[in-house]
């Protein structure tokens, strides 16, 4: 077991970068769908200004995460945005007066996962394969 732990620990810096890139791609796709209407989704047809602002954050910050540029502050902002999305967009979904706390019932699973994934990235950084790491190496 110790041998396996050492082997997996050696992969940690690369897996962190892959985790950052995949998280960025997933958030970027939401921004593209909300703002650029690709793919065309009925849910994002006529979005209110708050969702438009969220889409702009996801588009720009998702692209920065993919690159690994300013990873910590960008991930922190995204973590906050996802927490806000959960509490404003999912917990009180559909104008219901009483909050729906269970993510399975309110559709907030992705928002919670993104919130904590980005919080982790804000603490861990971008990993080996990031613009941040390249810039640190040149100093």
Give a summary of the structure in a few sentences.
With 139 residues, the chain is an all-alpha fold.
Provide the residue-averaged pLDDT.
Answer: 93
**Shape verdict:** globular
The largest pleated sheet is described as: none
Radius of gyration: 17 Å
Low-confidence stretches: none
Beta-strand percent range: under 5%
Compute the number of helices.
6
Helical content band: over 70%
**Multimer state:** single chain
Number of strands: 0
End-to-end Cα distance = 39 Å
Main structural class: mainly alpha
Q: What is the string of helix and strand elements?
A: HHHHHH
How would you describe this structure to a colleague?
This protein has six helices and no strands. It is mostly helical. The longest helix has 35 residues.
In terms of topology, how is this protein built?
Layout: H1 2-36, H2 49-67, H3 71-90, H4 103-106, H5 109-124, H6 131-138
Helix pairs in contact: 1-2, 1-5, 2-3, 3-5
Features:
139 residues
């Amino acid at each position: 077991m110790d041998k396996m732990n050492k082997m997996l620990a050696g992969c940690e810096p690369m897996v962190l970068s892959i985790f950052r890139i995949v998280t960025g791609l997933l958030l970027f796709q939401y921004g593209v769908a909300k703002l650029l209407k690709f793919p065309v989704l009925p849910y994002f047809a006529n979005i209110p200004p708050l969702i438009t602002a969220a889409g702009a954050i996801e588009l720009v910050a998702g692209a920065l995460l993919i690159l690994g540029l300013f990873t910590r502050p960008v991930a922190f902002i995204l973590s906050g945005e996802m927490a806000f999305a959960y509490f404003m967009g999912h917990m009180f979904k559909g104008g219901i007066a009483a909050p729906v706390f269970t993510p399975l019932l309110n559709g907030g699973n992705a928002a919670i996962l993104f919130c904590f994934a980005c919080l982790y990235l804000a603490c861990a950084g971008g990993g080996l394969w990031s613009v941040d790491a390249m810039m640190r190496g040149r100093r």
